[in-house]
Amino acid sequence: MSRLHGLYARDLLDNEQAAEYAGVAKSTIRQWVHRGLLEPAMRGEGRGVPTLYNKPDLDEVKRKLAEAEAERQAAWEARAA
Hints:
Elements: E1 12-13, H1 15-22, H2 26-34, E2 53-54, H3 55-80
Antiparallel strand pairs: 1-2
Helix pairs in contact: 1-2
């Protein structure tokens, strides 16, 4: 998902900034990475070097999760009808 070419410094966020931008907890960002939903733009190597995430990638994950939730809700409502 992540692309190093064409990135702008203003679009790169560390874990805390990415969580604030996405409106989720820092642990949620780590879970998205663990589940394969989000790929870091740049992995931090060593102490003090943060892993960075790309804003467009965060937007894409949020969009996909919202679509999946809407589909689950529609399916649930169809069964209840």
